């Protein structure tokens, strides 16, 4: 409950900055004062300074700051939401819910973006909408989840799907409202721009004309996330990108990381420039977060190598991974996941069957994923520069064997043989016997009853040398030739044709399953009776069938 109260109050605090010049009659000093007060309140909230009623205990000063904050933003509800969109030529809207953690994470970034846009003289108006409290208004303006950022330009809706950062939001809004490129023509303006510490594309063009320049502007307009800047002054360009030499025209990417400068060497065409930006905009090692997860998944770099460890352990590894990553730049994306962030790491580790490794003595895990086909890989060798480089080379040339989850190889075989990922070939596909296979998961509602039926069948047919019963837990075992998405599943793998298993309906009674087995495997009643007679009396269950 306390987290909800903090989130709700902070919503008012951070969104107070989100207001356009068109709606305010405050001078810069007033804005600065309010910002300072709001930041102070934000810090108080982080320290837990809420009283039992969910209010700030600091008194009248804080209350006044919040009141002033409320007056600086348009709060939408069921009555005014649609009208606000119609009345404003440009309106940026944040749809949120007080309980939503991601809404709370986005709020400060949204506020920073709003303040930055206002400082740039943007005419965009800003609004907030509690979609949980006003569901009719949310539906009317297109808020379908939380958080949602929408920009309305003359009534036309544009949904924001970019990174939840100030710079990304500002860049996107400016591009959608007619300012895709920032022009810098003085050294002072270039130096001031660099203080923003953002990723941007720099273009040097004489007189801002010609077909190459037109393609540059097209790329700037199409690409939503990265800011494009232009200049016709070489001395200004060299401040932004010191590596410029004697080129008449130049395009480069600047990032706020050690691997800072990337020069564009392709044809001056819109698609080529955009692909260059997409392939190079991430750092050598991307730190995986909830905010950038969508961009990681949708990256045009389809081969991705993940390193899992806690942050203090990764510090010892980072420079080595960076050095290897440098050799595979634009071909393989390198990503670090902090295993202390369980909500981020656990889905990946579970995918690889490695969740138990987090609690083991193994400090690092390195995996790979091919987003083009869903194949996954595991580096089982010790992590060092040589092994990591070889792992990446094999991944790149297609010789790295895919990884499939598997439990340890079982030491004993029971009446119903336990099959794991590593033994699926030998126990099922390469076995000279006919195999009746049960595929189950521990969480499956129907699996327990079906397992009992399989055990009855195994006892009934236990005297037959050419038939065995087996089961595999699909939650922790995988095999490329076992594609199952519903549980339980039952299959008969005939000895003479393992490539075409026969699917057995789980709805059949035990007796009907026995009949099906005899029919498909051509087992006579005489063989069955003889087999059953060879079973000790306590195990003979033919009467149950």
Structure description:
GO terms for molecular function: protein disulfide isomerase activity. The chain is elongated, with a radius of gyration of 31 Å. A 5-stranded mixed beta sheet has the order 1-3-2-4-5, with helices on both faces. A 5-stranded mixed beta sheet has the order 6-8-7-9-10. The chain has 20 helices and 20 strands. It has helices at 2-15, 28-46, 60-70, 81-87, 101-119, 135-141, 166-176, 187-194, 211-222, 234-240, 270-280, 293-297, 311-314, 318-327, 342-351, 385-397, 424-429, 447-460, 510-521, 525-533; strands at 74-76, 90-96, 125-130, 148-153, 156-159, 181-183, 200-204, 227-231, 250-254, 261-263, 285-287, 303-309, 332-338, 365-370, 375-379, 416-419, 434-440, 467-473, 489-493, 502-504. Helix 1 (2-15) crosses helix 3 and helix 8 (187-194) runs parallel beside helix 10. With 545 residues, it is of the alpha/beta class. It folds into 4 domains: 66-174, Glutaredoxin; 180-281, Glutaredoxin; 285-397, Glutaredoxin, CATH 3.40.30.10; 417-530, Glutaredoxin, CATH 3.40.30.10. It starts with a helix and ends in a 12-residue tail after the last helix.
